[in-house]
Design brief:
heterodimer; A: about 150 residues; alpha/beta; Glucose Oxidase, domain 1; two-stranded parallel sheet; 12 strands; about 20% helix; about 30% strand; B: about 425 residues; Aconitase, domain 3; 3 domains; 5-stranded parallel beta sheet; 4-stranded parallel beta sheet; 18 helices; about 15% strand; globular
Chain lengths: ~150, ~425
């Protein structure tokens, strides 16, 4: 996908706070449901496995993961840590609710992460949108799927 | 983040390379949280064992490499000194006495035994249980801790009145070497107040009902702080152990209050501490049934495997199971595993409970559980358990459907090989 050329125009910009610094861009994977680490993801494949989760069976590898926050076991960070070691981590994390699980998880996954955005990312961003995260500046640029396709 | 002079010394490497990596992680983590400072802790409960197949490449590089990467988030291998503060090991993946029954490869059991010896000598107390508060680590009210294990965290905060967030493998590892953890979340009095009022309209007394209430409430309040009032009978360690584990599995509950019972809420007013009540929830017969139906995802009533003891059983629970099994035999088509901390397993052995369970054909396990180990008896198709937490996680982790019910329902299923539990 060569959507970068359209970033200047038709781009929605969200502003928030850096959790982990860095720059990443890619396709968004959005869920309105919180994510469990241990017991909720397969750390070898980078997929969601929780039984009643709307993303069950879906891979977050190389995606910009947009989610409300973390839940469940204290193994959250260890399992996302393993996704990094196994090469199946998401490219960046955008989330709403700060917890120790998601903060430590983002830190050890070592991917750009932002929170406290001025608009709800779950409302603005849809799965398949092209997203650019500049965590040091605290910005998230979103090109909607339809525009990214027509570009 | 503001650091004290001793903390700066650690960050600058003046206290050694491991402390430097530990402080570096705590600063990155504290800044991610938005914490202003660290707080001193002398009580760490973490996960230091390296016995899963996926960490084999690290183990091959030695235990310093294991700790550096998995407990400090350091790709550079640094020599790991003795723990700076009181530190214990939580649950592990392998029962070092029953690994053959678990179906664990000898090589992995050997790997865990060696890791225990190494880390034990560094001062990590090998409680090897998800319930350190049952076997010698009982923090006092107000004590700042750095604990992992969601079911232990919620117990530590709510029942003991000690203060911990849900730490992870890396932050617990860093805390053990520095005696520091970010001052954030439940370390701060303000954040420990109630958010939701839960009005319990059906009587809650037995363990199953405490599990159902916790599972239902957790799903709704997520990480918030429920305050329970209404028709609950006086709970015990066992009942609150189940309640908290369930609420921490369906949601992320790390703290709750039961006015008149838990230490930071003499009454409802103190539980909320002047904060506005965010939501009021009603727990009636329909809510109870919903939780029960959600947890029971099996349909085939032939049960291959019965799992008891999550969180790890108290000695009274082992005694109850032994009594229910006395003079009877577990079905040849079913296996029964009963989990309790190793220290309590010794008491069970001394009292003869262990023999009562093994004579009936059951196995008493320690150090682990099926959700952590990912091991159940070979060819298991249907599981029964008295634990809302295992009923929540096992279908996801192993893809096996679960029946959930009372201890008695589960023991009867072990004997008959059939599930006959129902919501009374």
């Amino acid at each position: 996908m060569t959507a970068t050329g359209t970033l200047v125009n038709n781009t929605i910009v969200l502003r928030g706070r850096k959790v982990v610094g860095g720059l990443a861009e890619g396709e968004a994977l959005v869920t309105r449901q919180t994510i469990s680490g241990w017991g909720g993801i397969n750390e070898r494949e980078g997929t969601i496995i929780e039984r009643r989760h709307e993303l069950r069976g879906v891979s977050f590898k190389d995606k910009i993961l947009v989610f409300p926050g973390a839940k469940g076991s204290s193994g959250w960070s260890a399992y996302f840590h393993m996704t990094r070691l196994n090469g199946v981590a998401p490219k960046a994390m955008i989330f709403n609710k700060m917890t120790t699980k998601v903060a430590l998880g983002a830190v050890v996954t070592r991917v750009p992460a932002v929170t406290e955005l001025d608009q709800d990312p779950l409302e603005v961003i849809e799965t398949g949108d092209w997203v650019r995260v500049d965590a040091d500046r605290g910005t998230v640029e979103v090109i909607k799927k339809a525009q990214a396709k027509s570009a | 983040m503001r650091l004290t002079d001793p903390e700066k010394a650690m960050l600058d490497g003046r206290e050694g390379p491991a402390q430097q990596k530990a402080m570096d992680l705590l600063v990155r983590y504290g800044e991610a949280l938005g914490a202003e400072r660290l707080v001193e802790t002398n009580n760490v409960a973490g996960a230091f064992n390296a016995s899963t197949p996926s960490v084999r490449p690290l183990v091959a590089k030695g235990y310093d490499a294991v700790y550096s990467e998995l407990n400090l988030d350091s790709s550079e291998v640094v020599p790991i000194p003795r723990m700076a503060v009181n530190t214990c090991q939580l649950i592990t993946g392998i029962d070092l006495e029953n690994w053959r029954v678990q179906g664990v490869a000898e090589e992995l059991a050997d790997q865990q035994a060696k890791a225990e010896k190494h880390f034990g000598a560094l001062g990590i107390n090998m409680f090897a249980t998800c319930t350190p508060y049952q076997v010698g680590n009982v923090p006092v009210k107000g004590e700042h801790c750095a604990w992992m294990e969601s079911s232990a965290v919620v117990y530590c905060n709510s029942v003991l009145g000690a203060r911990t967030n849900t730490e992870g493998k890396e932050s617990a590892g860093a805390a053990a070497l520095t005696g520091r953890i970010p001052y954030w979340g439940f370390h701060i009095t303000e954040n420990r107040r109630g958010t939701h009022l839960v009005d319990v309209e059906v009587e809650v007394d037995d363990i199953m009902d405490w599990g159902l209430l916790g599972y239902w409430a957790g799903e709704i309040v997520e990480e918030d702080v429920p305050v329970l009032t209404g028709r609950m009978r006086q709970p015990s360690l066992i009942k609150l152990k189940h309640f908290g584990a369930a609420a921490a599995s369906s949601g992320g509950v790390e703290m709750y209050h039961i006015p008149g019972v838990t230490p930071e809420a003499r009454d409802v007013e103190e539980a909320f501490g002047g904060h506005k009540i965010v939501g009021t929830l009603r727990y009636g017969p329909a809510e109870r049934k919903l939780a029960y139906d959600t947890l029971n995802c099996a349909s085939d009533r032939d049960v291959d495997f019965v799992m008891l003891g999550c969180p790890h059983n108290a000695i009274e629970q082992v005694w109850l199971i032994a009594s229910l099994l006395e003079g009877r035999k577990v079905s040849p088509n079913t296996q029964l595993w009963v989990h309790t901390p190793r220290a309590l397993r010794e008491v069970a052995e001394r009292n003869g409970y262990l023999k009562m369970i093994t004579d009936a054909g059951g196995v008493v396990m320690s150090d682990t559980c099926p959700a952590i180990s990912r091991h159940v008896p070979k060819a298991t198709r249907v599981i029964a358990t008295d634990s809302a937490k295992q009923a929540h996680y096992l279908p996801a982790i192993l893809g096996i459907p679960v029946w959930f019910g009372t201890v008695k329902d589960c023991v009867e299923a072990a004997i008959s090989g059939r599930w006959n539990g129902d919501l009374p």
